[in-house]
């Protein structure tokens, strides 16, 4: 059980204690509550803090914590805020799904990060301990990022370090790119099925999203051409390599056609290069940026996927005025990523541990991907694998017509298996029922267990 869940459990028990008490009654001390609920003092203190925030108790330093007189406090009425705020931009349900990861007891068959045993945790601890002792970790860096880190991040893309903007993760990179390249109310084009985070980033920027169908070779460029003509959109968001959720890699012919197309239309491509370090079968394809001479491609990359979900660090590579505007926007946002995080990232990327980690990842991900494909083919043949991905973390699975993926994912969650509802990867109505299954966070044994449980639910 996570610490947050334990705090919630203790808070519920304390709420029952408070409900049975009278205003002014004093709660037992933290030590007594720790014994009573078999929880740490930190957990109890956090639970009491939740009750204090809700106005159920008040703390008086030196005296204790007392039950408040709720009759004297009217229930808050926030209805006025809805009118003042206007329509919500960001789809709260989709956002909750993107950030949801179940509990430690769930089999994680839909999770966009790596299992703890696949992370370079010892290296990160060692580098973190070194970083906090560095004076650079506590000194101000330029808002665009430390010069040393920008040089390291620029090298694989063969760009000027000045064109690199350090951001707190790939999702933040998508937000700053879309917010800078388009004005609120503009149309942005994205592949479908596609990464839900791109849709959320577009919504956050106040953009209208129009989807373009994708297949096993990535976005349909012929249909993208029609969409650009029809909408006059200036921005296209794509994952050309190991797309989430399909695993598709944009074919060579389509890459050339895509770049020719955006040049003709004077448009930008935001290339979400999220899985550059998660290649399995051979090296990752070259980024679109490598074939773009005139700044039509803006590339977003991240370390949160291959290194650690807690290492919230990524980069945006953008040239020309677009890059200048993004760097200015980041200054307005928060003056940059914490220097200590940048120090850890720089230390990792320049250490001998990094290439070893990437090589190990390739082997481990191949084992888990193959275990998932085999489990589906032997245990759940009615779930059809559309493409065996050559990299990334996800498998896109087609189900029989008539399967209600909303009900199936809810039933799987109740049974302790976390799976991805295919509906959330479409902007509009899905053409067929799909699931996204992930292999980066589950062990081969967990994969087998999860697929068996999913098969039982489907057949029921």
Automatic annotation (TrEMBL):
Name the UniProt record assigns to this protein: DNA-binding transcriptional MocR family regulator
Classification of source organism: Bacteria, Bacillati, Actinomycetota, Actinomycetes, Micrococcales
Keywords: DNA-binding, Pyridoxal phosphate, Transcription, Transcription regulation
GO molecular function: DNA binding
Organism: Cellulomonas iranensis
Recorded family membership: In the C-terminal section; belongs to the class-I pyridoxal-phosphate-dependent aminotransferase family.
Domain of life of the organism encoding this protein: Bacteria
InterPro entries: Aminotransferase_I/II_large (IPR004839), HTH_trans_reg/aminotransferase (IPR051446), PyrdxlP-dep_Trfase (IPR015424), PyrdxlP-dep_Trfase_major (IPR015421), PyrdxlP-dep_Trfase_small (IPR015422), Tscrpt_reg_HTH_GntR (IPR000524), WH-like_DNA-bd_sf (IPR036388), WH_DNA-bd_sf (IPR036390)
The UniProt record lists the keyword Cell inner membrane: no
HTH gntR-type domain location: 4-70
One Pfam entry name: GntR
Entry keyword Transcription: yes
């Amino acid at each position: 059980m996570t610490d947050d869940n334990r705090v919630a459990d203790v808070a519920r028990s304390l709420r029952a204690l408070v409900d049975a008490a009278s205003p002014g009654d004093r709660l037992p001390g933290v030590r007594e509550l720790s014994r009573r609920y078999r929880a740490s003092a930190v957990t109890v203190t956090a639970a009491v803090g939740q009750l204090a925030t809700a106005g159920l108790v008040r703390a008086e330093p030196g005296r204790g914590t007392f039950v408040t007189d709720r009759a004297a406090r009217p229930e808050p009425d926030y209805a006025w805020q809805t009118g003042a705020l206007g329509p919500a931009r960001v789809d709260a349900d989709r956002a909750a799904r993107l950030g949801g990861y179940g509990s430690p007891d769930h089999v994680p068959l839909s999770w966009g990060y790596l299992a703890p045993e696949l992370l370079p945790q010892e290296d990160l601890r060692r580098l973190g301990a070194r970083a906090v002792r560095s004076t650079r970790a506590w000194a101000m860096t330029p808002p665009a990022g430390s010069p040393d880190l920008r040089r390291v991040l620029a090298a694989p893309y063969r760009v000027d370090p000045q064109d690199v903007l350090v951001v707190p993760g790939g999702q933040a990179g998508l937000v700053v790119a879309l917010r800078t390249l388009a004005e609120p109310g503009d149309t942005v084009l994205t592949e479908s099925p596609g990464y839900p985070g791109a849709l959320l980033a577009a919504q956050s920027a106040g953009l209208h999203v129009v989807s373009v169908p994708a297949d096993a070779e990535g976005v349909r460029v012929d249909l993208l051409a029609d969409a650009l003509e029809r909408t006059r959109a200036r921005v296209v968001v794509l994952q050309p390599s190991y797309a989430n959720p399909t695993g598709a890699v944009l074919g060579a012919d389509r890459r050339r056609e895509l770049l020719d197309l955006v040049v003709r239309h004077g448009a930008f491509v935001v290339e979400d290069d999220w899985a550059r370090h998660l290649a399995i079968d051979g090296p990752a394809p070259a980024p679109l940026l490598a074939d773009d001479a005139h700044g039509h491609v803006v590339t977003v990359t991240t370390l949160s996927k291959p290194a650690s979900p807690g290492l919230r660090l990524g980069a945006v590579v953008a040239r020309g005025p677009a890059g200048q505007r993004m760097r200015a926007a980041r200054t307005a946002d928060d003056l940059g990523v914490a220097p200590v995080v940048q120090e850890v990232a720089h230390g990792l990327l320049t250490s001998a541990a990094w290439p070893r980690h990437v090589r190990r990842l390739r082997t481990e991900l191949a084992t888990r991907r193959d275990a998932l494909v085999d489990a589906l083919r032997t245990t759940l043949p009615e779930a059809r694998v559309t493409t065996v991905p050559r990299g990334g973390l996800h498998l896109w699975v087609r189900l029989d017509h008539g399967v209600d993926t909303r009900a199936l994912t809810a039933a799987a969650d109740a049974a302790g298996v976390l799976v991805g509802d295919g509906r959330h990867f479409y902007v509009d109505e899905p053409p067929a029922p799909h699931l996204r299954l992930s292999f980066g966070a589950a062990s081969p044994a967990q994969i087998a267990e999860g697929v068996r449980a999913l098969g039982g639910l489907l057949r029921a």
